[in-house]
Task: inverse folding
């Protein structure tokens, strides 16, 4: 961060009043618009109101977990455990709130806790996974990629154990399905989309306007310098890991509530999608660079590409290849434009 | 004066002793762990499991079975050790294996002979490794991101090759997979072990020789220890690390070939998560996770330990515990690794 602003000041030229981060965000918005226009021209039936609504709402879960992943990426850390945490928390929230001793089928019996308590406990378990991540990364200095791969398996494994490899969906209280299926009055927009938008706004204000947010960038740009100037790097990273797991757990609860089921194979590969949208939005793994707003735009780009692929009747397998190509192009293009801009 | 000198010597002696003990623990613990695991599972009765002959663990048939299951991980984890010593990582090996096994099965199904199919598969692995090397070393994309990109890419291509409506390559219309595809990974060549096993061992031996006797072993350790210093002393990291990626790609392709032959079909999803198994093997084998230190042979022992543990565990606990156990084993491996090599 420090170096980029210096560079901008050293060469005051066209558009230097906006930061490099906002430049990338604007670039990606331009890409989004261009892609949308191309899709509208070439894909039959793309230009509909419903498509636009879908683009904004379909990736809500990726955007929520993307917030945590983006902040960790800014501090040069990966969090691959989010998909596992979604599965685990969803399953646990079901297990905790299922009525106790109602059936001879072990998968129909839970702990019979009231729903708010069940949610609270499930979220605490999710944050526990974040704590494990933080312990290994901060205390033992293990590369985050290795540890979060392990906790990904650990969390999903807990989900598998609790559901015995399948799912739990019976004897749930009525209020379980409430939060995931609530809609805004007179529309079909689900309440979790509103939550997603609110979280993005909060995260954006946090990263721009608060000390904690700016410290995240400082740590990512130069963690030793941050530590020497009195920033509690260990504490900050720990909180970020816990927050990332918390957001994943929250998503898991919403998804479990939407389907009224705890499915252990839920959210496979979401950790990769969260990384994809962050990278599409210009977050740099070199540290200290990126924005939640960019991640949001990245998610919209992914949604446009995916719905265009569906419109062109490509088989779902193409999604893997499209994501790979999109990320590759995004990384190369952002690097190119940043170098040109900085000079 | 006369007091302090002996006490200094004493101290130095004690320091030496604890260093020697530490070094010895570091050198031999992996063999100890293997012995321990084998003893534990020998005591536990394994009667209920159909994979094993009735009787105890140390039955020759059981060992042969275990080694046959371990072929893919043995084949691929040696090369991966090199990469981790150089402080690089390849998360795409699972997808490389999947794509290789799909290509291999497709060629066999379409009437190509074994050597042709094998050569094409290995060539495909070479290309996949080269792409990884190019992305990481030439285009300077962070290894994790670059190999996640190729993970998704290879996985997608593998899924595209498999015809719609089927989950794996096993037949075209009336024509089914020839039975001899099994020969490579199942047919008894020597001591009941198949060809694929000996190919895997040959790869491991070549890698051990490469590590001990040639510059590539020294260079990868130098790059992993301090990349800038290595570069300044005339080592070209772009060249050497690209070679390491290519070696990993080729061995992953051969592992995929062995898996396709073992299962007699080309399954585009069966190798998902292989990177995790291999990372556990490498860490158990004491390769430093910040690079610069590690041995191929210990990784192989680590790989065998994981296979023994996961297969042995299926006898005691239900299969759906496996994911959890794998994650837990990874964390334990990290802790052991940290205790032994992380601090020094």
Result:
């Amino acid at each position: 961060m420090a170096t980029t602003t210096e560079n901008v000041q050293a060469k005051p030229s066209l558009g230097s009043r906006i930061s490099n981060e906002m430049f990338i965000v604007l670039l990606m918005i331009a890409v989004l618009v261009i892609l949308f226009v191309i899709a509208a021209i070439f894909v039959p039936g793309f230009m509909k109101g419903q498509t636009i609504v879908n683009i904004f709402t379909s990736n809500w879960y990726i955007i929520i977990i993307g917030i945590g992943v983006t902040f960790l990426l800014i501090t040069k850390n990966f969090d691959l455990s989010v998909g596992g945490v979604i599965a685990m928390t969803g399953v646990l929230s079901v297990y905790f709130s299922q009525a106790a001793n109602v059936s001879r089928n072990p998968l129909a019996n839970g702990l019979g806790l009231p729903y708010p308590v069940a949610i609270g406990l499930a979220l605490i378990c999710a944050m526990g996974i974040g704590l494990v991540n933080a312990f290994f990364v901060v205390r033992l200095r293990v590369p985050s990629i290795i540890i979060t791969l392990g906790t990904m398996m650990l969390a999903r494994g807990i989900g598998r154990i609790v559901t015995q490899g399948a799912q739990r969906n019976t004897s749930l209280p009525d209020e379980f399905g409430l939060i995931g299926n609530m809609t805004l009055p007179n529309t079909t927009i689900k309440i979790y989309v509103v939550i997603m938008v609110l979280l993005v706004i909060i995260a954006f204000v946090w990263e721009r306007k608060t000390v904690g947010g700016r410290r995240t960038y400082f740590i990512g740009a130069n963690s030793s310098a941050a530590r020497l100037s009195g920033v509690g790097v260990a504490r900050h990273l720990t909180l970020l890991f816990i927050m990332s797991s918390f957001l994943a757990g929250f998503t898991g609860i919403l998804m479990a509530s939407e389907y009224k089921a705890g499915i252990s194979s839920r959210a496979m590969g979401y950790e990769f999608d969260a990384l994809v949208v962050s990278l599409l939005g210009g977050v740099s793994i070199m540290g200290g660079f990126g924005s939640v707003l960019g991640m949001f735009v990245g998610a919209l780009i992914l949604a446009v590409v995916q719905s265009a692929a569906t419109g062109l009747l490509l088989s779902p397998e193409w999604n893997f290849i499209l994501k790979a190509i999109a990320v590759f192009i995004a990384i190369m293009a952002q690097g190119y434009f940043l170098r040109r801009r900085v000079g | 004066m006369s007091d302090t000198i002996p006490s200094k010597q004493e101290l130095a002696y004690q320091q030496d002793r604890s260093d020697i003990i530490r070094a010895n623990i570091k050198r031999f613990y992996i063999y100890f762990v293997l012995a321990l695991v084998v003893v534990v599972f020998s005591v536990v009765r394994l009667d209920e499991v159909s994979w094993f002959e009735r009787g105890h663990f140390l039955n020759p048939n059981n060992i042969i079975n275990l080694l046959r299951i371990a072929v893919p991980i043995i084949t691929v984890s040696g090369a991966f050790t090199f990469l981790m010593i150089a402080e690089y990582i390849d998360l795409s090996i699972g997808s490389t294996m999947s794509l290789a096994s799909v290509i291999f099965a497709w060629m066999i199904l379409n009437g190509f002979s074994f050597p042709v199919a094998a050569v094409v598969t290995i060539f495909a692995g070479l290309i996949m490794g080269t792409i990884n090397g190019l992305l990481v070393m030439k285009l300077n994309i962070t290894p994790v991101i670059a190999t996640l990109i190729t993970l998704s890419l290879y996985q997608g291509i593998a899924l595209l090759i498999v015809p719609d409506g089927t989950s794996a390559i096993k037949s075209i219309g009336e024509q089914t997979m020839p039975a001899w595809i099994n020969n490579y990974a199942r047919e008894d060549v020597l001591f009941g072990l198949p060809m694929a096993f000996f190919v895997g061992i040959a790869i491991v031996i070549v890698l051990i020789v490469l590590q001990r006797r040639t510059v590539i072993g020294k260079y990868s350790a130098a790059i992993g220890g301090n990349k800038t210093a290595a570069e300044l002393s005339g080592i070209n990291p772009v060249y050497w690390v690209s070679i390491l990626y290519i070696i990993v790609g080729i061995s992953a392709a051969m592992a995929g070939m062995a898996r396709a032959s073992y299962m007699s079909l080309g399954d585009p999803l069966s190798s998902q998560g292989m990177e995790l198994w291999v990372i556990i093997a490498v860490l158990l084998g004491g390769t430093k996770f910040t690079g610069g230190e590690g041995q191929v042979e210990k990784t192989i022992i680590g790989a065998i330990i994981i296979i023994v543990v996961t297969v042995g565990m299926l006898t005691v606990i239900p299969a759906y515990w496996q994911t959890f156990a794998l994650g837990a084993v990874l964390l334990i491996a990290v802790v052991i690794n940290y205790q032994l090599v992380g601090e020094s």
Summary: Confidence is low (pLDDT under 50) at residues 1-12 of chain A. Residues 17-34+47-342 of chain A form a domain with the ABC transporter involved in vitamin B12 uptake, BtuC fold (CATH 1.10.3470).
